[in-house]
Amino acid sequence: MEQIIDKYRGDSTAMIAILHDLNAAFRYLPREALEIVSDRLSVPLSYLYSAATFYRSFDLEPCGEHEIQVCLGTACHVRGSERILDALSRRLGIKPGETTADGKFTLKRVNCLGACALGPLVSIDQKHHGHLTIHQAERLLEAYKDEHD
Amino acid sequence: MMIEVKINGKPAEVPAGTTILAAARSCGVNIPTLCHHEALEPFGACRLCLVAIDDAGRQSIVAACNYPLEHSGLVVETGTSAVWQARKMSLKLLLARCPGVKVLQDLAREWAVDTKDLLLTEDRGEECILCGRCVRVCREVIGKSAISFAFRGVERRVSAPFDQEPDACLGCTACAFVCPTGAVKVIEQNGRRLIAPWHSNLEQVACKECGRAVAPLKMLAHLRGLAGEENEQAGEGVFCSRCRRLKTAAAVTALPEVKFPGPFMIP
Ligand code: SF4
Ligand code: FES
Ligand code: FES
């Protein structure tokens, strides 16, 4: 925690970068962490909450061990990523934004991962898988489950 | 530096950086506003202040409240049919979100907006139009930033951090004061002040004389701090405005009568 803040020398303009690092370290942004950041950077807690709820890359609830992001940016959307999201959601038995009961997977809809040419795009633990069909996406998920069981 | 602008055909001169809204008001032209507040930085949220501008042939419709005039030659029209159409559309969008809000309903009537396709209700429902006045007053005037916008898109709302009672809130109710729709409900009961949407819940200081609640302890401590006084005494010896007035009046009546010289005796 302190390390992360010190890395940016308490610079308040690095607020977003700090939140990113914290989100990665805790797999979400605990309230206590934001309170410490607020204190150290002299940034009101409300600003941090604003940013934490605005960007999809931040979580306010603990995430599962593996994070599945389905891109619903414009390019992926027109190539049918909505249906991939539905399929994965059904298979995992959770809605987008939720985490499976065993704490293994979190499913998220995100807004453009910046690799539109690869759409429809699914990223699991930051690894991109492009040009997916629904079937392939489901197989990918199963393979992933097996691998990490 | 002064710059020239023409508003509804009338030439005017204003200092560079003046907004179209301020320039128009300075020459008596009224532009409707809702999210604008004289004491706050412009925000451009409600889009009711739209006007048409012509900048050397480049025409557009802009929000008057946050459009700064930086160079001479702008021609502004505040009442064209295109302008009214745009304003009415903004109003309809606000009404679609908040069909129960009275200020919006009144404006719709005044502007003869066709609301047939909207379901206006008596029941107030969602009352926040996301104008940001409460957020701005808390940040810019009170300096506390207890509340902020949170989430995005259709989920956007004003909230205290984590939607829980905010530490930073003094209970001053400036937010309720500037809210144009009445969305910020303040409840005073059992010696506490509650600001409903933020879950603020503050202990009130009682009047030393009549026992009525005067103001939140936290707010008084803040004011004493601003005045350079000790915080510990924040809640001590506080009278409500009525008792204070009565005490002053009593003190004044108790003074010996003063004889003033007659009106013609001034040397
Ligand atoms: S609560 Fe009131 S002042 Fe605050 S954003 Fe909503 S309408 Fe505006
Ligand atoms: S839209 Fe999916 S990566 Fe850009
Ligand atoms: S008054 Fe200008 S946008 Fe609200």
Give a quick account of the main beta sheet of chain B: strands, pairing sense, barrel closure.
5 strands, mixed
| Total domain modules of chain B | 2
CATH class of the largest domain in chain A: Alpha Beta
Give the mean pLDDT of chain B.
92
Question: How big a fraction of the residues of chain B is strand?
Answer: 15-25%
| Rg of chain B, Å, rounded | 25 Å
- From the 3D coordinates, which CATH architecture of the largest domain in chain A would you assign? 3-Layer(aba) Sandwich
CATH fold annotation of the largest domain in chain B: Ubiquitin-like (UB roll)
Helical segment count of chain A? 7
Number of domains of chain A: 2
Strand and helix order of chain A: HHHHEHHEEEH
Number of strands of chain B: 11
Q: Biggest interface: chains and residue counts?
A: A-B, 12 and 17 residues
The computed structural class of chain A is: alpha+beta
* Assembly level: heterodimer
Kindly state the number of beta strands of chain A.
4
Protein model, in words:
The complex is a heterodimer of chains A (149) and B (267). With 149 residues, chain A is of the alpha+beta class. In chain A, 47% of the residues lie in helices and 12% in strands. Chain A has 2 domains: 2-54, no CATH class; 66-148, 3-Layer(aba) Sandwich (Glutaredoxin), CATH 3.40.30. Chain A is built from 7 helices and 4 strands. Chain A has a 4-stranded mixed beta sheet with strand order 2-1-3-4, covered by helices on one side. In chain A, strand 3 and strand 4 (127-129) form a beta hairpin. The longest helix of chain A has 14 residues, at 134-147. The model of chain A has no long low-confidence stretch (mean pLDDT 91). The interface between A and B is medium-sized, with 12 and 17 residues. The structure holds iron/sulfur cluster (SF4) and FE2/S2 (inorganic) cluster (2 copies). One FE2/S2 (inorganic) cluster binds at residues 33-36, 44-49, 63, 65 of chain B.
